């Protein structure tokens, strides 16, 4: 029993040292990317986990600004990576997957009130359907400073498709939006965060410049631009405490050199 207590004591001490190191080590420099979906107060049960209430989202935006974060777009990131512009001291990219109508009616005004930017990843074949953004709304959002990206044509996890279908989902979603009057689509979001080692090259062939995953962590100019990491922000259960913990998660994973995608396989 004495040896068990001794072993537990050693483990507790090691854990304390690890937590102290994690907490006291300076925050890594990098670009924070946050992943949202719905911004609304009421939604059906099937999408409830992905709906951040308006008051919570507003509080999160205000917290980011109070902490010195400045929103940028994926294009800003790539221009800075190529030496064509400077990034702010604490850049953050706000991304919104699927392209729900509340991104226009609710999200856009909240960002504009604060002089902030965002990137919306659209499921192309959902454009104009009930609950999703229309072509006119997408065009207007671009004119008002929102970056539009591709979330494929049909939102099928690409790893479940053959190579021909994968390429079709990447290519057609981009072309359809550009043919309908949207500015060039340069950024991509993997449905369900599912990707494999061949997809970055496929996206490059289709003239995308960046792509976001569901892997947690911060990004630098050394990060593969087709495997950018994001922190998911679901409907909160613990208010701002949960939001701050999720930001800490990005820092912790980066400090530890852990790419979350590896943990899922």
Automatic annotation (TrEMBL):
SUPFAM superfamilies: Glycoside hydrolase/deacetylase. The keyword Nucleotide-binding does not apply. GO terms for molecular function: hydrolase activity, acting on carbon-nitrogen (but not peptide) bonds. Residues 90-265 form the NodB homology domain. Its main location: secreted. It is found in: Secreted. It comes from the Bacteria. Keywords: Signal. The keyword Signal applies. InterPro entries: Glyco_hydro/deAcase_b/a-brl, NODB_dom, Polysacch_Deacetylase. Pfam families: Polysacc_deac_1. GO terms for cellular component: extracellular region. This is Polysaccharide deacetylase.
């Amino acid at each position: 029993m004495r040896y068990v207590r001794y072993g537990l004591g050693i483990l507790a001490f090691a854990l304390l040292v690890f937590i102290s190191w994690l907490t006291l080590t300076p925050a890594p420099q990098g670009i924070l990317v946050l992943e949202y979906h719905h911004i609304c107060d009421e939604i059906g049960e099937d999408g409830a986990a992905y709906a951040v209430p308006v008051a919570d989202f507003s509080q999160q935006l205000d917290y980011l600004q109070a902490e010195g974060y400045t929103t940028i777009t994926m294009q800003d990131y790539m221009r800075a990576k190529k030496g064509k512009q400077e990034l702010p001291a604490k850049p953050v990219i706000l991304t919104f997957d699927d392209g729900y109508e509340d991104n226009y009616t609710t999200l856009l005004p909240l960002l504009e009130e604060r002089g902030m930017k965002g990137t919306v990843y659209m499921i192309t074949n959902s454009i104009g359907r009930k609950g999703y953004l229309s072509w006119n709304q997408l065009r207007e959002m671009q004119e008002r400073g929102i970056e539009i990206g591709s979330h494929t044509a049909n939102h099928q996890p690409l790893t479940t498709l053959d190579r021909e279908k994968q390429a079709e989902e990447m290519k057609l979603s981009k072309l359809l939006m550009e043919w309908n009057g949207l500015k060039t689509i340069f950024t991509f979001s993997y449905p369900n965060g599912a990707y494999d080692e061949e997809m970055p090259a496929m996206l490059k062939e289709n003239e995308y410049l960046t792509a976001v995953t569901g892997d947690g962590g911060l990004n630098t100019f050394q990060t593969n631009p087709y495997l950018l990491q994001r922190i998911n922000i679901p409907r909160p259960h613990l208010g701002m405490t949960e939001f701050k913990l999720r930001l800490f998660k990005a820092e912790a994973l980066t400090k530890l050199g852990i790419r979350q995608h590896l943990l899922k396989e």
